[in-house]
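Sequence in, structure out. Go.
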Amino acid sequence: MSDHSRTQERTRPTDNDVVPLRHPGRIVASAILLVLLALFLWNAAHNDAYGWDIYASYLFDSRIAEAALNTLALTVLAMIVGVVLGAVLAVLRMSPNPVTSGIAWLYLWIFRGTPVYVQLVFWGLLSAVYQSVNVGFAEIDLESLLTNMFWLAVIGLGLNESAYMAEIVRAGIQAVPEGQSEASKALGMTWWQNMRRTVLPQAMRIIIPPTGNELISLLKTTSLVIALPYAGELYGRSMDIAYAMFEPVPMLLVAATWYLVITSILMVGQHYLERYYSRGSSRALTSRQLAALTDAEGLPPSNITVEDPGNPRTGNDKENGR
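Output:
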């Protein structure tokens, strides 16, 4: 090595220390928000209008717990109706037959274009429109069905939800490249085998997140079934107790607490479902592979995770110059 190269090596500057940029505005804004939050909590804790004693006494009341179970039952049953019927509507919507596609489009247009509250009111008044149905050889009495407000609520919520689930399922299926289905057909798979083994596993990664959001939204929409009227769910039962005591605020807090708890549980389940169906959407590379990929693409990909740089195999490859 020449003397000039040795001089350059000795005078090579050291790496600069990176100093994080300070943001005093963020600190001030955060402090103001924390102070406002503390003032609100202090005021709410000492405000008699909230009725914290009533809130504590009715939070675990058996009537409220039973209403919460009814709310869950409404949500699950209506979601089952929505998912099953929505999947059927999605297939009909993508059908090349203009009649079936047009009927599916008309269904989506009606149920997505009218408020769910209006639909529930209509279902509640259906007993005044139809008392029985004549099918030619027999007459079916509908009184027992149309006076059961619980099942009318399930049907009303489920039919409305199916219109939204149809679009979610259709978007998920159409997001799978057509080449996947063509490859499955080339392997001799039937249409159902192609959907079950190829299309749906890939589409579920797109379908699951909005479906979880729809489930959580449907849980809160159950508060509208009082329009039928059905008052056995959480909001209706809480308001019945509140009107009897002339204390609506603490009972609203009770209902809100239960909704928050149930929603939080559903969000946890949604998180694990999303993680399960997102398997294979990310890759694990060594730091050397990531550097090569970054040089080729110009920026590091967002779906890449780096393996432990202390991996013995990575170290041996480095030593061997591979």
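Check: The CA atoms of residues 178 and 277 lie 20 Å apart. The chain has two domains: 50-281, 283-322.
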